[in-house]
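Data deposition worksheet. Section B asks for the primary sequence of the deposited chain exactly as it was used as input, without tags or linkers unless they were present during the calculation. Section C holds the resulting structure in token form. Section D is free text for depositor observations; keep each observation to a single sentence. Incomplete worksheets are returned to the depositor.
Section A, Depositor: J.P.
Section B:
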Amino acid sequence: MLSFLPAPLLALLASALMLLNILLWVPILLAFSLFKLLLPFKRVRLLIDPLLLRIAEAWIAGNSGWMRLTQKLDWDVTGLQDLSPRQWYLVVCNHQSWVDILVLQHVLNRRIPLLKFFLKKELIWVPIMGLAWWALEFPFMRRRSEAYLQQHPEERGKDAATTRAACEKYALVPTSVMNFLEGTRFTPAKQARQQSPYRHLLKPKAGGVTLALDAMGEKFGAVLDVTIVYPGGAPTFMHFLQGKVRQVVVLATTRPVPQATAAPGQTAEQALRHTCQQWVNQLWAEKDALMAATLKNKTCL
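Section C:
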């Protein structure tokens, strides 16, 4: 509607509307979260958690509102039929831009339960948003290199404990546990550094999926596999605010939850880890081919 405005003015307007939406909903979110913190009982959680989810959904709907007002976006979305907000989902997706988060929230809001992202520990210090993520109980992970863990073995397993603790809370109310399997945003430089075998993706990591399935695998009704494609190239967040993104393709597929069967001599944990790594490798090969076909098709149109 307002996409005709000059890019700098459009970015300023979109930023202002996004900030106002945050300032409207985050204080309400924090008020209910503090009430739950002061009364840490299961009955209180069962009462407050659904309210927090409704508040977050209203916040996301507000984001969708300013996006419709300021962006002239052609949405090509498939595969969202037969989803339910009353079922637990494990959601996996490729990652190219911070815009991915707005895209996912926009297309999935109220179709499935609120997405709970695994976040870097440092993000808790982001002004306002860090508090909002804390209030919504997003798990904060402290990523450590293998070299660091070898020098500090006492740190090994802490992220697993954080994940399990979060997933125990998620088991009370339908939740969508969100994983960007690449662990970071795709760039050609990272692709070259990793020597990734994929054209459009980095190597996937199975750790987050393994932990989520280990903690609450019996709760998940399905895996929602989402592929995001930007035919005009992966945008920066500023490019998005300036209205320079014209088309977004979202391809969703509902898949069965991976099931592990232990081979002779394997523990259940080893079997699950092996199954998840094979599963994500196959999934990523299919996703890479899908992205290549989609980009070729959109280029030809």
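Section D:
The CA atoms of residues 206 and 276 lie 6 Å apart.
DSSP finds ten helices and eight strands in the chain.
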